[in-house]
Specification:
Strand content of chain B: under 5%
Distance between the termini of chain A: 31 Å
Structural class of chain B: mainly alpha
Order of helices and strands of chain B: HHHHHHHH
Structural class of chain A: alpha/beta
Largest sheet of chain A: 6 strands, mixed
Radius of gyration of chain A: 18 Å
Distance between the termini of chain B: 33 Å
Number of domains of chain B: 1
Helix content of chain A: 25-40%
Number of strands of chain B: 0
Number of helices of chain A: 9
Radius of gyration of chain B: 21 Å
Number of strands of chain A: 10
Oligomer: heterodimer
Strand order of the largest sheet of chain A: 6-7-8-3-9-10
């Protein structure tokens, strides 16, 4: 479970996050939606510790993510897996090396054990026989899947996905959505997804948070989204041509 | 004020490297990879510039010492001492600042803009240490070795140029070089190489690490790495000469 308590963040006097408080439950897919520039990415980057918040707390199962407590932050981060918008794979390493990297860094597995684990993770994301390929040699959808495989290589508790479907065709987007849902359920992890894709919202979203001008404007389930009377949320949905 | 801001950031960047490595074996592996990249990778250019540097210095010194009152062994003395004191460590380091420095800054800068550094950070890795420390240690180890090779090859180049130009024989050159040889000259050269190795790698890592933007900014970081490394090498060169040669 991840809990946000009154999280504030400003950049050069401009308040980007205005006291966001919420709870992301384990075993559920939590979606953060909202227009570009309203603070979704800053919120996610703050949650994974890439940005230090000005005020408020971020708690991972009651452990505070605190930049001043480097060891604690490091411990929390080892439970985190993240799928970046651009996949963020190591371009000069093969798929095998990319997925193997966290195992090499944080476990004492033998080479054989690591290979077995890499193959297990790649199989989970429906990728096989790509171990020796470099990121430049595979498609965007495959890169995302390798990114997920790398994120779950260690036994993570929290999975963050920043715009997992951006730049993908609708069919591949659904494949990625289903993968994220399966992984969340199978490993009982807390998943948080930043997305604009309303199909994702209605397909896999358990808990949805709508961010508007740096504030948590609305929160509910995917069924509540359609019936909500929140004007800004409805404007956002209408602009997505879904509802 | 900007200078102090960047210098402070540079010092904080260096300080952030000194934490317990996540896994020593991975860091060691990276150190060897960097040693090969910096050392073996720079060998061809170092060999080339060193031979020509020695050859040109010999020919030019011979040209200036036209009077028969000065023995020809003096050319060997001048070429040998100036090679050890200045040419080999400084010229080699300036060339390495261009080759190694730009490579380091663009490599780390590209990783930054591709979010690869963020990915490492999210995994709980000290990215400054993981990316910078092996490169800096490799620089500290390999630049002095390259400078020793450069000194040797400059002497070889000097002897060859003396022989082919008819300025002096190999025996005269070696006799001159040996007559005033002091161990401290070599030690001073290595102190400089060690310092310059640190400057090249740390300054380049710093500029790469703090790259923001896209491809153009990676290019800018690379240029800044070379320019600031070169300036710092020249400043350090003067400071070391002033401190150690009095």
């Amino acid at each position: 479970m991840i809990e946000l308590k009154d999280v504030h963040k400003s950049f050069q006097g401009r308040e980007v996050l205005r006291g966001i408080s919420t709870v992301f439950e384990a075993g559920k897919i939590n979606l953060v939606i909202g227009a570009s520039g309203h603070g979704k990415s800053v919120l996610m980057r703050s949650m994974v510790g890439l940005i230090d918040v000005d005020k408020g707390n971020i708690l991972y199962d009651n452990r505070i993510l605190d930049f001043k407590d480097y060891e604690q932050t490091r411990e929390i981060r080892r439970d985190i897996g993240m799928l970046f918008q651009g996949s963020a794979l190591f371009n000069s390493s093969t798929v095998q090396e990319n997925v193997e990297f966290p195992l090499k860094m944080f476990t004492n597995m033998t080479k054989e054990e690591r290979i077995e684990r890499v193959n297990f993770c790649l199989k989970h994301v429906n990728l096989e026989n790509v171990n020796s390929k470099f990121p430049a040699e595979i498609s965007g959808g495959m890169k995302k899947r390798v990114g997920i495989a790398r994120a779950i290589a260690l036994d993570i508790k929290y999975l963050f996905c920043d715009e997992p479907n951006s730049g993908l065709d609708p069919i591949t987007s659904r494949v990625i959505d289903n993968l994220i849902r399966d992984i969340t359920e199978e490993f009982n992890i807390t998943t948080i997804i930043n997305t604009h894709d309303m199909k994702t919202v209605f397909d896999i979203g358990d808990n949805i948070i709508f961010i508007y001008k740096g504030d948590k404007w609305w929160e509910g389930t995917r069924n509540d989204v359609k019936t909500s009377h929140n004007k800004e949320l409805q404007d956002f949905l209408n602009a997505s041509y879904i509802v | 004020m900007t200078v102090f801001y960047h210098f402070g950031r540079y010092l904080l960047f260096l300080r952030s490297m000194f934490t317990k490595p996540e896994k020593l074996s991975v860091y060691t592996q990276r150190l060897f990879t960097e040693m090969v990249a910096i050392g073996i990778g720079s060998l061809p250019i170092v060999i080339l510039i060193s031979i020509f540097q020695g050859a040109v210095t010999t020919v030019q010194t011979a040209y200036q010492l036209v009077t028969p009152m000065i023995p020809k062994t003096t050319i060997g003395i001048i070429v040998s001492d100036s090679t050890m004191l200045e040419l080999a460590p400084t010229i080699t380091s300036l060339v390495l600042a261009g080759k190694v420095g730009s490579h380091i800054a663009s490599e780390i800068g590209t990783m930054r803009i591709n979010e690869e550094i963020d990915a490492l950070e999210v995994m709980g890795i000290n990215t400054a240490a993981f990316l910078g420390l092996p490169k800096i240690l490799a620089g500290l180890l390999m630049v002095p070795i390259l400078v020793i090779i450069s000194i040797f090859l400059s002497e070889v180049g000097g002897i060859a140029a003396g022989h082919f130009s008819g300025a002096l024989t190999a025996d005269e050159f070696i006799q001159g070089a040996r007559s005033t040889f002091k161990l401290f000259t070599l030690q001073f050269s290595l102190i400089k190489a060690f310092t310059f190795g640190f400057i090249i790698t740390s300054v380049s890592c710093f500029h790469g690490y703090y790259t923001q933007g896209g491809a153009i900014e990676v290019g800018e970081s690379s240029t800044k790495a070379v320019v600031y490394s070169s300036i710092m090498i020249l400043v350090a060169d003067y400071i070391l000469a002033d401190l150690l040669l009095k």
